[in-house]
Amino acid sequence: MNILWLPIVVLLGALAAPSFAVAQGKVARIGWLSAGTAEIDADLVEGLRRGLKELRHVEGKGYRIESHFTAGRPERLPEAAAALAASKVDVIVASGDQAALAAKRATGTIPVVVQVADAIGIGLVTSLAHPGGNVTGASDLHADLVPKRLEILKELVPNLSRAAFLSNPRNPTCVRQASEIRAAAPSFGLALHPVEVAGAEDMERAFGAIAKEKVGGLIVCGDRMLATHRSRIYELATKQRLPTMYANRRFVHAGGLISYGTNLADLYQRLAVQVDRILKGAKPGDLPLEQPTKFEVVINLRAAKAIGLTVPRPLLLRADHIVE
Questions:
Q1: Pairing relation of β-strands 296-300 and 162-167?
Q2: What's the CATH code, domain 142-261+296-323?
Q3: What fold characterizes domain 5-140+263-292?
């Protein structure tokens, strides 16, 4: 299913500037920067490849992707970003908030195409319509979707009265999401218990804290480090028979219960358009950051069965995709 996109504004003449154009016949070098792994990011990279192929870019002849992953260790992103900048790639695709911030700090001249949750909120740009500088991409509204995720979790578990929120305190978007969910929880009659996890070594402790709170549901922040460890999160949540809401379908296909958010593979297919424009000479700062207008509910019935949960029929009927 393709996502419908709504550019903030159409800027005439955005394609006219030649300063970033790649010489004809040259193989463009696209740097991929992520706190994930090659396996975790495979569907996102494939989305980008699919978009580039639609635009008649041939991998190996017209471009190649040079990937730098930090395997769930976001503190290593500045070093990885500096390495990409030093190698003088033609454009950097920064996947996730912390990768985007690292890329921006590493270079002010190489174009950076980002996928972030809240570009303005994390200080990446001051305007979505006029980002300026060397950054463009997409802001996918993770923080703005938190109340809706809470609403769907409450619909999934009608008697829910206590929920936990699992987040990465090093990600500024998770900080904002924590604030948004705290503000929204009372309107759903929920007591909220925030739990922070900075890395894989914190998972057991975090879920131990969740168990002590005797919550009836969990919401996981949309964060690349947490996505890297999503299988472990699913295992621990299943062990506690804990209905868990995730940020997007990637968590659900890895074994999680339910998600509400953007289809990220489709998002990266769309980001290929911005990469294409930059390679043809557009200034990234003249290309508005885009926002998705379509979001999806994805439900994993195997995960529901594993914790003894029956998904309400109205919610099943509204689901965009069901994992049997």
A1: unpaired
A2: 3.40.50.2300
A3: Rossmann fold (3.40.50)
